Structures are given as C-alpha cells and as structure tokens.
C-alpha cells in the first residue's frame, strides 16, 4: 500500500493498463448479498475501477485510498465520493455500509485491524467482498516476470499466491459467518471453482508493449525504481520474453502475448 501513496506513482498508467473486472464478478457478489443497496465502500479504491461498477447498483458509493494521486485520477460520477485514508482506520460511523469491497489490495493489510474495522462499519446483513489475481504467467511457456517479486515484498506476494489462506486470513471463516470462496484454479477443497467462461478478472491478452506498461503499474516496480533509478527490471523482463518466447524468432512490440490470471474471490456476510 505504501508504494501507491507517493505522488510520483503513475496513476494514469495504473488506470489505463490494469486488468478490469467483469460484470459476472459483480453479479456473483449481488447474488450472495442479502443486505440493502444504499451505501457501498471500496477500500484501497485506486483509480475507481470498482466504484464505477458499484455505482450502477448502489445509491451512494465511497472509495477510500492511501494515495492522493490515485484519488485524483479516479472515476467520477454523481453518486461517488472519495477520501484519502487507510484500511485499518476507516473514518466512518458504525454500521454505515451495506457492502464493503477490496480488489487486489487486501494482501497489504493488517488483517486483524482490518477485520475489526469491517465488522464495525458494516451494517447487519452487510457483505464483505475481497478479490485478487496473481501474476500473469505466459501460457505454453515457462516464462514469468518473477524478478519483480523480490521487490514486491515476500509476505504480500505469498498471501496472494496462497489465495488468502494464511497470514491472518486463515481466521477469515471464524471472523465472519456465511463465508464463500471462489478460486481459479481451485486450490481449497471447500472452494467453488470459477467457470472458465465466467472469469471475474477480464482475461486480457496483451501486446508486448502493453504488457511492459502493465508491469510498470506494479507497486514492486515502483519500489524497485526508488532504489534503482537507472535500471529497469520491467524492460529486462520483457526483453527476455521477446528473445525467448519463440526461440530464434524474436517477438515484435505489437505481437500478442496469451496471458492467464489466477483469481480468488472471498465473500462474507455478518448475518446472524
């Protein structure tokens, strides 16, 4: 989370090159949800990818993020408001929201403090929806931009790789009642598998140049550049792919890379 708080972070690139979320994701959340549709809160909202989707369903939507620059670039609508703040200290009254969402960010949170805040500001019968996707390996090729992993932070990387099953997330079923887990590929016996044709994260293949720009939206890239201002691991990773994806036939900038995305969705209700 701290990496996104810098005003130097390229929020416009984040908005442009990050994967988007499908209508199937939102409909899955709404089918689970048994509360009202008055107010929704998106935590670590970034540039408002999620608030945009929620605004079609809820009367009022609020997005909160640690980064002022992200908020400045966030999607705007009459029923959407934003503020700067952190997940562990939500500046809202008790029982304020019908739905709380977190997309591709919960692995950075202090889980104990976050769970406490969620239970405080969530209304009776309210829903917490947490989802994420892991790094995008190339299909049919043993290539992944794993060099950036060491800059990302081992704990956050492992939490996401393990689909939120440790580092405090193993307590999720005890902290909240009526928990449902969706995974692709399925890892936990109790999880529901996300159907191939109904993925929650848009499974977008990217041109070589776009994949490079996507890597540069990672917080790990930002962290790396802070300590290595003259180097560029994203460029190095993509150059490796260009040269080795089709040995003997280097890729061009406009060639399309077939990517796959591991995905996780956690749903919980505070129904009694």
From TrEMBL:
Q: Does the keyword Hydrolase apply?
A: no
**Family according to the record:** Belongs to the methyltransferase superfamily.
- Identify the species of origin: Basidiobolus meristosporus CBS 931.73
What would you give as a GO molecular function for this chain, any one? Answer: S-adenosylmethionine-dependent methyltransferase activity
Keywords from UniProt, A to Z, are: Methyltransferase, Transferase
Q: Name one Pfam family in it.
A: Methyltransf_11
Task: List the transmembrane segments.
Answer: none
Tell me the superkingdom of the source. Eukaryota
BP GO terms, sorted? methylation
Where is the Methyltransferase type domain positioned along the sequence? 41-129
Xref: CDD domains = AdoMet_MTases (cd02440)
The UniProt record lists the keyword Transferase: yes
Please give the name of this protein.
S-adenosyl-L-methionine-dependent methyltransferase
